[in-house]
Amino acid sequence: MRLWTSILYLYLILFSFSTATAVNVVFSKQYAPEIQEIADLITAGLYDQVFAKGEPLLERLIIEFPQGSFDEAKVRDFLVNAYYRSRRVMEPEAVTMGERAISLTEEIQGPDHPEVANSQMHLGNLFSRRWEAHKAIPYYEKTLIILQHSGSDFDDQRAIILTALGVAYRRLGEGKKAYQLYGEAVAFWPNAALQA
Prior knowledge:
CATH architecture: Alpha Horseshoe
Shape: globular
Distance between the termini: 24 Å
Radius of gyration: 16 Å
């Protein structure tokens, strides 16, 4: 029973890990307050407002920074977060939004940066919410690889991603693999809880 309680707890937390930014990530001074407001709206669960503020901001960022910027990448990432948590989860542009967030973040921060893992996780969550587990798994696996190289500060996120990956495998009917991943997640959790 304790294992199932831990698994449920970790899975519920999965949908709360996603608005934090990693160390050494800086937004432009001009747009930082608007980006923070979007992050706060996600935390509050106000997804319609995220779209209302995020989509026009994204258009302005694309015009001002045609080559792309971290501001654009993060706004796209926040919009993907809102897509997978809202009734707009099935909209086709959500996937291209997530793919662009990943590619921009990789270009700007490098392919192994924790912010890339965050974007990978959001796209994995989107596919998972669409019940497309086979598409979610590669994004979760890439997230884990990045987080494994990012140090113990990311153990809580690793536990969350292991749980999400377990859910994806379970949806594919691979219960044995799912339980293995749940066990790995629970093993991480005591270390992660001590860091909080």
